[in-house]
Design brief:
Elements lengths: L1 H13 L6 E6 L2 E6 L4 E5 L1 H12 L3 H9 L4 H18 L19 H7 L3 E5 L25 H13 L6 E7 L7 H14 L3 E8 L6 H9 L3 E5 L4 H4 L12 H18 L3 E8 L5 H13 L5 E5 L2 H7 L11 H7 L10 H15 L24 E2 L4 E3 L12 E2 L3 E2 L1 H20 L24 H25 L3 H9 L4
Parallel strand pairs: 4-5, 4-10, 5-6, 6-7, 7-8, 8-9
Antiparallel strand pairs: 1-2, 2-3, 10-11, 11-12, 12-13
Length: 497
């Protein structure tokens, strides 16, 4: 009688609709990740194989028949008992497809959230640039290029002041174009912010460093800027894409500017200098190593590397050119130290936050509905303010994507809800509510909006597939990392916005 009850329970759990989860095999160890609760369970090899058949089977009768050729009925029943017990005690295997894809309840009152809790603006100080990088995301967006007026800068900082009443510190970033083409405006913005915001100030800037002089280096370091310098690697690699309008490479000027920043930073012991490398075709293990070597000889201790944007990849390169002998993630995992914090920044920039995100994942007592958890609340974490005063989600999303407000009139809550939250939910429900990664996914608006400013399901699906594959590899790697106490302490210390 008990056996019949258990068999019927397994039948209802896996047929006709499958629960959402993922079976993960790591060397000689076997695991099941349950999407609804975010729990990870170890299991025996035989339990793993029986679960594989249950997840892959079309009907319960056919699955049971197939299993009977491999295992005795008693072995099958023992596994079914263990699964039935876990379902009852751990509430796993209960989340099914077609749940509502939604934003978390505590984040729905967007108006109140944006009224006094924002702490960051990024000023598009200029749309002009002295380079003509082949992969530049902004190369096709501007019919004419403009600079931000001094009045607009001050209004933007006032906007931050008016909407950051509950924030303890604020961040002001400068972006372009090449922001240092308007160094005089940056200085005025810094002084105005310091004189008008009675909070801890943090300034940041992304630059190609070709316009760095002794004066600019001294000012940026003295004002404790966090500076990201775009350096793609060796001279050959860097100059293949980061070129002037006359197609001359910019490597020598970039390195000269970087060295000035590093020199002043070392002397003053202030400011943070880091580099960002764009990894573009042709891809190869040797190319990654060459980038790493360049950063080492420059004495760069803070670095990031990421793939070229998908839109420019498909626009400029053939499929053959984009083939990889070793991907960035696989290279990083192969070359990583067992003690995560001992890895250099380049390696850590590729996978560290993904591991930490998995380690810090919330565990649920009961299955939760699928959350819209990869996206920020537009305006809350970032505010990218264009030269004209339009507020955009961030610098990474298409310039043609819907704006979320204007410095003069404030946030457009209707646009935020309609174009980002509701449209995102409606477009993603069918796909995301069936995905085993849905409660951990960190794909954001930049991953789904295309150059036209619309949600592109093809782009979304492509990024989703890559994310799921990389996350599975991350989980496999993490299972060994989590055994070390120092790794657990380090991963617990990593903060997320």
């Amino acid at each position: 009688m008990e056996g019949t009850k258990v068999i019927n329970s397994i039948n209802r759990t896996f047929f006709p609709d499958k629960p959402i989860g993922k079976l993960i095999h790591n060397k000689e160890k076997y695991y099941y990740f349950d999407t609804g609760t975010n729990k990870l369970f170890s299991c025996t090899r035989d339990d793993f194989r029986i679960l594989e058949e249950l997840f892959g089977g079309v009907t319960f009768e056919n699955t049971l028949s197939k299993l009977s050729y491999i295992y005795s009925f008693d072995s099958i029943l023992k596994t079914f008992h263990r699964i039935h017990k876990a379902i009852a005690e751990q509430q796993i295997l209960k989340l099914k497809p077609n749940n509502k894809f939604r934003i978390a309840n505590e984040r729905t009152d967007i108006g109140d959230l944006l009224d006094g809790h924002i702490n960051s603006i990024t000023l598009e100080i200029t749309q002009h640039c002295n380079l003509a990088c082949r992969y530049c995301i902004n190369s096709n967006y501007y019919s004419t290029r403009n600079d931000m007026s001094e009045d607009m800068i001050y209004r933007s900082i006032d906007f931050l002041k008016d909407h950051s009443g509950n924030a303890n510190e604020v961040y002001v970033g400068f972006y372009g174009g090449e922001p240092l083409l308007k160094f005089d405006l940056i200085k005025r913005a810094v002084y105005y912010a310091q004189n008008n915001l009675s909070k801890k100030m943090n300034f940041n800037l992304t630059t190609n460093a070709t316009k760095i002089t002794d004066e600019t280096a001294r000012f940026l370091i003295d004002q404790d800027f966090s500076i990201i310098v775009s350096l793609d690697g060796s001279k050959e690699i860097h100059d293949s894409n980061r070129i002037y309008k006359n197609e001359k490479g910019s490597y020598l000027e970039t390195v000269r500017g970087l060295e000035k920043l590093l020199s002043y930073s070392k002397n003053k012991k202030r400011g943070t200098i880091s580099t960002n490398s764009v990894y573009s075709p042709p891809f190869s293990r040797d190319k990654i190593e060459a980038i790493r070597h360049e950063l080492d000889i420059r004495g760069i201790t803070r670095s990031m590397i990421s793939y070229e944007m998908q839109e420019t990849l498909s626009r400029f390169y053939s499929r053959d050119c984009m083939k990889e002998d070793l991907g960035l993630l696989d290279w990083a995992l192969m070359n990583s130290n067992k003690e995560i914090k001992r890895n250099d920044d380049l390696i850590r920039s590729i996978f560290e936050r993904q591991i930490a995100r998995f380690f810090q994942r919330p565990l649920y007592l009961k299955p939760v509905c699928v959350l819209m958890n990869g996206c920020c609340i537009p305006g809350f974490r970032k505010n990218y303010i264009s030269t004209s005063g339009k507020i955009r989600v961030c610098e990474k999303i298409s310039y043609n994507s819907p704006t979320i407000g204007d410095i003069m009139t404030g946030y457009d809550l209707d646009s935020i809800k309609r174009n980002y939250i509701n449209n995102f939910i409606q477009s993603g429900t069918d796909m995301c509510s069936k995905c085993w990664l849905c409660n951990l996914c960190d794909l954001c608006f930049a991953s789904v909006f295309d150059d036209s400013g619309a949600i592109n399901l093809s782009k979304w699906q492509s990024n989703c597939k890559e994310k799921a594959e990389s996350c599975e590899r991350i989980i496999r790697y993490s299972l060994d990392c989590f055994r070390t106490k120092s790794n657990r302490q380090y991963l617990r210390s990593i903060k997320f916005s």
